[in-house]
Amino acid sequence: MQYILLIYGEEAIWEADPDVEQKMADYGKLAGELREQGKLVAGEELAPVATATTVQVRDGEAVVSDGPFMETKEVLGGFFTIEAESLDEAIEWAAKIPDARDGKIEIRPLVDHSGDGA
Question: At 70, is the pLDDT very low, low, confident or very high (cuts 50, 70, 90)?
Answer without folding.
Answer: low
